[in-house]
Write a structure and sequence with these properties.
alpha+beta, six-stranded antiparallel beta sheet, Alpha-Beta Plaits, about 25% helix, two-stranded antiparallel sheet, 8 strands, about 170 residues
């Protein structure tokens, strides 16, 4: 099933953090081509501590054969391997953030996993890169395409495209 993750980093070598996370994800045994990688965008931190650096954000989509809960566990292990700790306050600066956005049209609401991601339709830093690779996608629970959602979004902050190929 087509599956997407959002990647974000605002600490350390942000571009290398995104590259390392993407490589680790694409190396997972149940991840299959075709692989779609959005351009990378630089965005203002939202809800982070004062003085937080800007984020680099991207979206990667791939075919995934398996249980989404297993994928989430693997993504958490990738974050930890790249220096993210699990015991941090919400919305603080981080070397890597990997959010599972969707797994096909699966709707899951558990304590550990919510699919599709409950806030992705209202986040410019997710919709902009997703719109580059899947502009006509209609997310589960939505009636508009990603491009239409993005056009109507009035979230503050600039989303600046900085890297096309990575």
């Amino acid at each position: 099933m087509r599956t997407a993750v959002a990647l974000g980093s605002n600490l350390g070598d942000r571009l290398e953090n995104l590259r390392a996370a993407r490589q680790a994800i694409l190396s997972l045994s149940n991840v299959k081509p075709p692989i779609l990688s959005s351009p990378i965008y630089e965005t203002e931190p939202i809800g982070c501590e004062q003085g937080a650096e800007k984020f680099l954000n991207a979206v990667v989509e791939f075919d995934y054969e398996g249980d989404p809960a297993d994928l989430l566990e693997q993504l958490i292990r990738i974050e930890e391997a790249l220096g993210r700790t699990r015991d941090h306050p919400k919305n603080v600066s981080r070397t890597i953030d990997i959010d599972l956005l969707y797994c096909g049209d699966r709707n899951i609401r558990s304590e550990t996993l919510q699919l599709p991601h409950p806030r992705m339709h209202s986040r410019k830093f997710v919709l902009q890169p997703l719109g580059d690779i899947r502009p006509d996608l209609i997310l589960s629970g939505q009636k508009k395409t990603v491009s239409e959602l993005l056009a109507k979004l009035e979230e503050p902050g600039e989303v600046v495209r900085i890297v096309d190929e990575w």
